[in-house]
Amino acid sequence: MAPENTVEAFVAAGVLGADGVELDVHRTADGALVVHHDAGARGVGVLAERTEAEIRASRPEIPTLEEALEACAGMLVNIEVKNLPGDADYDPGEGVAGAVVELLVRRGRRDDVLVSSFNLESADRVRELDGAIPTGFLTLVGMDPVDGVDVAHAHGHGAVNPDVRALPRDGGQRLDRERRGRDATACGRRRRRRHHRRPRRRAARVRLPLTVLGSEKRAIRLFCRRERWCRA
Fold first, then answer.
1. What is the predicted pLDDT for the residue at 206?
2. What would be the CATH architecture of the domain defined by 1-136?
3. Which of the chain's ends, N or C, has fewer CB atoms near its CB within 10 Å?
């Protein structure tokens, strides 16, 4: 199995027939964007305190966001901007969000992406800079998914990804009943790798709100993205 958050992992996901992957992006000291789950990396320390060259020298398997996008060609990529207060690399100026938009525009908008974040200000910044880029709001277990849909809708985001533990037993019916017609998506967060057919069974088990998503296929795609079966 390929190490997580590597080009090899993304390529393997494509070979296995993945519709999409989810990855996390952080900035370096010299403004580059690198893909890694946490703000710090073994053998490197806090990524934002090291240059791209220094990171490459210590951990050559950590890819840049552009390298990851190239490896994910043909798949949907959920780019999660990690930038919460308290994070080791927290940036109130939303430099990562701005750099992600700049990169996507420079690449000619050819990438199939969704830019999401737990930090609403980060997602808002992406929309402010380029409203054509799809954005999403990730919610923690303490937030009611219905409230998450309200917030995402009010801020113009097309997706809301709640923690699966926050979904009520009748989550699908409730969200459909209370938010019918809203252009929002919902999916679960679980840290397991799955083949794309497994989330269909799990989706039924936790009663994900497929009706809100508009189509079962789209629901499975988004669930896979947060299920992390294809996480780098």
1. 31
2. Alpha-Beta Barrel (3.20)
3. N
